[in-house]
Design goal:
Elements (H helix, E strand, L loop, with lengths): L1 E6 L11 H4 L4 H11 L4 E6 L3 H11 L5 E5 L8 H9 L4 E5 L21 E4 L4 H10 L1
Parallel strand pairs: 1-2, 1-3, 3-4, 4-5
Length: about 140
């Protein structure tokens, strides 16, 4: 099974950025833990702060991977293009958010990804990624 985690803007700052919301662990360290725990999965990771690069990665992997775990971060609430990319591919996508977006600012209650996602997992911290991974198993 081949799965990719795609992270959007500012998630490269995990471990430094707003630790009261996002925690103190870097995503790279967490990703290594996931790979060690789920050795039966070919697990890849991609992060970009650039919307077009995220769309390109969704398109590149959206016909050959078994699953995509997507945290588009702030683009979730603003990018019709990312939502359209998810709709255009055949690989199932699980939308993930570290924080509970519904407990935050009102603009974060809208998602352009959700209507085309297989499912949504929000608010469980970094554990949200593992829950998404388990949903593919």
């Amino acid at each position: 099974m081949k799965i990719i985690i795609i992270n959007g803007p500012n998630l490269n700052l995990l471990g430094k950025r707003e630790p009261e919301i996002y925690g103190n662990k870097t995503f790279e360290n967490y990703f290594e833990e996931l790979k060690s725990k789920y050795t039966i999965i070919d697990l890849d990771y991609f992060q970009s702060n650039i919307e077009g690069e995220l769309i390109d990665k969704i398109q590149d992997t959206g016909f050959t991977y078994d699953g995509i775990i997507l945290n588009a971060a702030a683009y979730t609430h603003t990018s019709v293009g990312i939502g359209d990319a998810v709709k255009a591919i055949i690989t199932p996508v699980i939308e993930v958010h570290i924080s509970n977006t519904f407990a935050r600012e009102t603009f974060r209650h809208q998602s352009f990804i959700s209507p085309n996602a297989k499912g949504i997992i929000i608010g469980f911290g970094l554990k949200s990624y593992e829950l998404a991974l388990q949903s593919f198993l």
